[in-house]
Structures are given as structure tokens and as C-alpha cells.
Amino acid sequence: MKKIYLILAMIIALSTAVNAGGPNYQNKIEAGTYVFVSFSMNDESLRSYFLEAEKHGAKLVVIGLIGDKKSRNRFAQVKAKMEQVRINVEINPNLFEQLNIKQVPVIAFVNKSGSVKKISGHISLSKALEIMQTEHKPNKHQ
Questions:
Q1: CA distance 111 to 55
Q2: 2-17+29-134 maps to which CATH number?
Q3: Strand order in the sheet with 90-91
Q4: At what angle do helices 125-134 and 43-56 cross, to 10 degrees?
Q5: pLDDT tens digits, 89-142
Q6: What DSSP string describes the chain?
Q7: Neighbour tally for 16: CB within 10 Å
Q8: Residue 77 zone, left/alpha/beta (φ > 0; ψ -120 to 50; rest)
Q9: What pTM was estimated for this model as a whole?
Q10: Contact 36, 101 (CB under 8 A)
């Protein structure tokens, strides 16, 4: 139980540090694979994306906390949802903004040079990665 609160506190601290990073930070996105989801998605989909993300070394990302912004128990709601579905997520509204994610699910791959490929819609992570890897390979018939 304390572990979840510690993780949430670290996420908030990181988010605060990111916000304090200034305008230059906005251009720096860590290379990797991100799966953008929402707590409003059904539990089966969230769990499936989580398992695939773990398998492929991707990060499962949500935009924010659950519930009414005026509620004092939003962290408890997040904790309960994560325990119910047996997932871990990164809460990162800045990443949603930087990659212009407006609806979920979206799978994004950011390479070391900062180039971004995105696929939206309910697609498996494995299939999305396969599509993104073959997307720019020349066709043998060309």
C-alpha cells in the first residue's frame, strides 16, 4: 500500500520538475515506446496493454488522476483502480501534450533523434510495432 503512494508521490514530483523545466524541456522526449490509455477504458483492455507493454519494454501512460478534480481521494481512486486491474501506469499530461494525443488508445514510438510514429485505435502493441517497423522499408517491387 505504501509502495503505491510512494510511486504516486514520485510521479507528482517528476511532473512538477518537468513543469519547472521551462520551454526547452518541451522538445525533449525520451526515446521509447509509449502506450497512451485512459482509466475509462475497460479493465480487460487496460490489463492487456499493460502486459504487452511489459513484454516490449514500453510505458503505459495516462493523462491524469481519476475522478472529480475537487475530490480529495483521487489518489486513492487511482490506487484502487491499479490494484483492481493489476497494472502500473505513468501519469504524464505533459507527454500527452507534447505528442498531441487527443484520444486513446494511441501507441507511439519515439526514436533517439526525436522522430515520432503514432498509431491510434484499439490495436495490439505487437501489431502496432510490426506496422511501424515495416512502414518505411522500401517495397521490393519499387
A1: 19
A2: 3.40.30.10
A3: 90-91, 59-62, 32-36, 106-110, 116-120
A4: 50
A5: 999 999 999 999 999 999 999 999 889 999 999 999 999 989 888 654 444 443
A6: -HHHHHHHHHHHHHHHHHHTT-GGGGG---SEEEEE--TTS-HHHHHHHHHHHHHHT-EEEESS-SS-TT-S-HHHHHHHHHHHHT---EE-HHHHHHTT--SS-EEEEE-TT--EEEEESS--HHHHHHHHHHTTSPPTT-
A7: 10
A8: alpha
A9: 0.74
A10: yes
Task: Dump pLDDT digits (tens) for 24-83.
Answer: 444 578 999 999 999 999 999 999 999 999 999 999 999 988 777 777 888 888 888 888
**Rounded CA separation 76/82 (Å):** 10
CA distance linking residue 20 with residue 16, whole number of Å: 6
Residue with cell 517491387: 141
